[in-house]
Design brief:
Layout lengths: L7 H4 L4 H7 L4 H8 L3 H9 L6 H11 L3 H6 L20 E8 L5 E3 L10 E3 L7 E6 L13 E5 L12 E6 L4 E8 L6 E4 L8 E4 L1 E11 L18
Parallel strand pairs: 1-4
Antiparallel strand pairs: 1-2, 1-3, 4-5, 5-10, 6-7, 6-10, 7-8, 8-9
Length: 234
Amino acid sequence: MPVPNRSAAERERHFIREWRKFRGLTQGQLAEMVGTSIANISRIESGQQGYTQDMLEAIARALGVSPGLIIGAPPTGRRRPGADSKWPEDAYYVLLTGYVGGGADVHFWDPRDRQGETRIAVADATPDMKALAVDGDGLAPTMRDGDILIYSENPPEYAKLFGEECVVVLTDGRAFVKTLMPGSVDGRFNLLNANPAWPAMVDVAISLAMPILGKLRGKWRKDDWYYPGRKTAD
């Protein structure tokens, strides 16, 4: 949705710097993602230079938030939430439910563990959205270390997901990120890997397939975000 034209004074009231720092990005990294210069990012953040609609949308895409949020509110979530943590803007955050390892295997965190409260700011988030972090480079080049996968917990019927990347849960409880395809018999499915060199899983029984809606490149850093099983300095 286009953001209304704003006066020079109004253009100074934005939260680009705050959202960039919340993402753990330098001005140089943001500039590279947007396709502009560090000087331009610096001037926009300081209010010395206005932004165009195209520039605002490009920055918003790079930061994984909506343009309206960038000019309307700073990030409010904390990186290492404790028992008293609050998430007042739930419409803009999705829960990070676990991570994807090098074999495309999904490791879900225990939802009873309050330390698994990490959330990711996502533009136009809906209540059914959840997120997984990619841990390691085993899924390169389609998925890289630090990527965030956004998936839906409200999937359509399986036939509508054929050919799509999904978070697939097998009947034995194991979970993977795979491309869902029909199997040789009804009720069985083939699961293809992002890396074609790896063998497919053929005619497996599944209990759930949740479509991946999108990816945020390099938004998660193990050194910045706390999650169960890793120790970080406060």
